Amino acid sequence: MNTQNNGASRLYINEINKLWDECIKSTIIEISQSLGLKHKNLNYLERKIKNVYNDLKRNLIDTYMSVDSPDIDRHKIAACALKAIMIVKPVYIPWKAKLKFIFSKEKKLYEFIDTKFTEKDYKYFICANEYVAWSVATSIVDGFILIEDGKERLRHALLLPNPFPESDDDYLLDLCICLHYTKSRQLSTIMLSNTFFLLEKYSCRKIQCDNLEKAYIDKLLNDPNNDKDLDELKEEVRKIRLSLQSANEK
Predict the structure, then answer these.
(1) Structural Rg of the chain based on CA atoms
(2) Are 136 and 151 in contact (CB under 8 A)?
(3) Which is it for strands 91-92 and 38-39: parallel, antiparallel or unpaired?
(4) d(Cα 19, Cα 14) in Å, to the nearest integer?
(5) Whole-angstrom distance, CA of residue 77 vs CA of residue 69
(6) How far from 195 is each of 9, 41, 106, CA to CA, in Å?
(7) Are 124 and 111 in contact (CB under 8 A)?
(8) Half-sphere exposure of residue 215, counting CA atoms within 13 Å on the CB side?
(9) Is the CA virtual torsion 39, 43, 45, 46 positive or negative?
(10) Residue 37 in contact with residue 93, Cβ under 8 Å?
(11) Is 150 left (phi over 0), alpha (psi -120 to 50) or beta?
């Protein structure tokens, strides 16, 4: 192994060590505890996730990038982290709870398992590892979403689109369920990377639009010549957004 490759290996190790210490470990513990589930031995998980992450990263660089540059951007880091966690599956349902869940699912008696858990809770149990993976991946991208607000640049979390705003469905839960039923090793890392890039751009645009909408409404509400109430102003802004969207689609 030459000197250049040794340097690349050190970069891989330093990067994933930081991810494990600052994000992955705490997310696994937090989500498994919040859902009342168990996680595998942390020493085993640290070693396994790091190894899988580094393999995915090397493969991504060898396939899509110059071998001379071991650095990858935040979207590719997030994609490798998500896929590594899905492959390793750090969280599991304790066997007694799993048996009760499977039996009750067949009988469709969710409410009789435990009154503190809902059907939605059990769906999160099923896709707990995907929930961990998505939480880690989005937290990696979160720190880079900076929005101009006057003289400041403010950080914002990654946003998911809400295709059905009037529905009670949980879009994140549906997304994690889809990931759960996808064979993790067949997921394209570069496709995931592009997805995170698009979500970041969407988040920035959504936040900017919301800020402009708020500023527009505040300005009109403070205008003594304005005789419209808040609902009328919001409807006016909605129509403007729709007209702009229609113009962009043509």
Answers:
(1) 22
(2) no
(3) antiparallel
(4) 9
(5) 14
(6) 27, 31, 35
(7) no
(8) 8
(9) positive
(10) yes
(11) left
- Judge contact between 25 and 46, C-beta under 8 A: yes
Please write the tens of the pLDDT for every residue from 188-236. Answer: 999 999 999 988 888 877 777 777 777 777 777 777 666 666 666 667 6
d(CA 75, CA 179): 18
Amino acid at 177: I
Dump the DSSP string for 61-128. HHHHS-TT-----HHHHHHHHHHHHHHH--EE--HHHHHHHHHHHHHT-GGGT-TT--HHHHHHHHTH
User: Would you state the structure tokens that stand for residue 103, as one six-digit string?
Assistant: 């039996």
Helix and strand numbers (H, E) in the chain are 10, 4
Furthest C-alpha separation in the chain: 75
Whether the CB-CB separation of 123 and 177 falls below 8 Å is answered with yes
Amino acid making up residue 189: T
- Between 104-108, 179-183, 234-238, the lowest mean confidence (pLDDT) is in 104-108
Q: What is the pLDDT of residues 123-147, one digit of tens each?
A: 788 899 999 999 999 988 886 665 5
